[in-house]
Amino acid sequence: MRTVTDFFGTMVFNDQVMKERLPKEVYDSLQNTIQNGKHLDLSLANVVASAMKDWAIEKGATHYTHWFQPMTGITAEKHDSFISPKSNSTVIMEFSGKELVKGESDASSFPSGGLRATFEARGYTAWDPTSYAFIKDGALCIPTAFCSYGGEALDKKTPLLRSMESLNKSALKILHLFGHDEVTSVKPTVGPEQEYFLVDKDTYNKRPDLVYTGRTLFGSMPPKGQELDDHYFGTIKPQIKSFMKDLDYELWALGVFAKTEHNEAAPSQHELAPVFTTTNLATDHNQLTMELMQKVAKKHGLVCLLHEKPFDGVNGSGKHNNWSLSTNTGMNLFEPGETPSENAQFLLFLSAVIRAVDEYQDVLRISVASAGNDHRLGANEAPPAIISIFLGEELSEILSAIEKDEKIGSKQKEQMRVGVHILPKFPKDTSDRNRTSPFAFTGNKFEFRMLGSSASIADTNTALNTAVTQVLNEFYDILSDAKDFNLALHNLIRDTIKNHKRIFFNGNGYDDAWVKEAESRGLSNLKSTPEALKHLLDEKNIKLYTENKVFSEKELRSRYEILLENYSKIINIEALTMIDMAKKLIIPAISKYTRELAETCKLKREMRISSSYEQEVSFKLSLLLSEAYSTTLDLEKKRNEVNQIKGAYEKASACESIVLATMNKLRKTCDEAEKLTAREYWPMPDYGELLFGIR
Ligand code: ADP
Ligand code: MG
User: Which one of 87, 427, 458, 577 is most buried, by most CB atoms within 10 A?
Assistant: First the structure.
């Protein structure tokens, strides 16, 4: 049997394969392109394409596809076979450099927010050599960026790559001030912890709400939820275990560093954490992970739910974005150092993140805004919609001493100069225990916990990289002009702490008191997606993205439209699904059961025996039935009205305040009726079956 090490990455055209299969000068040029973004000559692209094709064919591939990440948040592909007719009856397998480098996408129906005029609805895909090509389902997949002919980004990958490039430049400038001339590249690293639910496939298929929207739109809680905490890290059931094993193998073959898998807090909820890697690769890998989770689940008679809140009343699913910066020399910039100078550098980068998170709270919040995640943010298991930073006790104490020019652990005034004096060591593993903080420093990285489980990690990392870039540039301007570097550095760090300490919060983020406290500190609390998105086009945010060359203003405006439209579309689909289910399943079921009760009642009365149960329940159900019916009609009417609204923001906002509010009302009524209706009459599997169906 082959071991995992033999097997790992066998479906990836990675560095090792390139080294083996490419002529040395082609390999070196390609490396130059990958490491330094240098342009690759078409003649070299031909050589690379040919080597890729031969390798892929040996692995059984017959097709190739440009693989890209449009604004839908999932990946897109269009398969072409390698075959090319040679004579009337024979073919050869071909793949040219041109086909590798650029693809025409006739996918005019991808959302573009008006960026592609209708006469030029096509965009093109361009090879991203920084991500390895791989084979999936018999097709060679080439990671690409997706752009319009005007050069505007139509995908999630292009802005991410741009943000990485800008961050690289600014972090390098700073490192060079610290004398690190040996460092030639800085890259953000990410390890996204992915949560998900698994439910039985047959049960799932009987729930139109899950099928159409990914979440249950109706359903009352079973007698047992997650209160016993017996699922978290509990024994993994055999069916799930075999799913996880299969998934690991599929992911490993694709070079994804799937590492840890365990049960999560809610019944049927699980988590997969990979080993961290460079952000663009981590983004590709996370997309593949989500895709394969869904595919492998089906093979095991399961369905994988990636929605942020598939079930009301139990935990939702998120994706913790562990983020750090690392250099080509192997330095982690958020690893506290051993010497005063190392510590000073650490504190400077730490200060940059503190200031970036405080100044761009809204930008980070927007990066996680989605209709699905709205059900999770602010609910009691997840971080509230308020962003704050958790630093842990020891580090907070150090920062506070720097701020007040005090010696650590005493009140006596004594200058503790950053970059000159030794800072006390702090144990890093004590810092990660606040699970309620949305943005926690966890010893040598930050963990941003607001991201929803179904989202691409590209948006959040684009936002984070750009905000940090902006602050590093501002820091550089101050430090590079300074006559006394150490003094300027000390003052900069101290002033940053002073000016931005409102963002620090080490307490319980789920506590109601925190919401009030945060308000008094002036922190933003953008509760819904439309409310958050409104701020994407604030002047300061347009400036942030355009000055750091991550988005043009045109691109940003198009994204604003796309995100709002997407939100409205989701609410619309959910409303239609609810109306359909209410009319065709739930209302008829309640009516049928009421009739059964009423008939029994009549019979019993004739027989002069007690019919108190039938009377009472049929009475209650009749009331609920009328209410359910009238609310359904009301929902239908409101949905129609809201759909007429023209402006993207106005429509999304009305979807939230009017349509969603009516949906919640309808759900409440129907869930009440579910509790009173005999199980055999209820027209779909209940929460108990969904959450505890896998044994
Ligand atoms: P937990 O959060 O469960 O305590 P860890 O802190 O060990 O677990 O790691 C969580 C995630 O953080 C993993 O995906 C891991 O690869 C990632 N991670 C660890 N170090 C870094 C880093 N320097 N940059 C980005 N992600 C990292
Ligand atoms: Mg974690």
Answer: 458
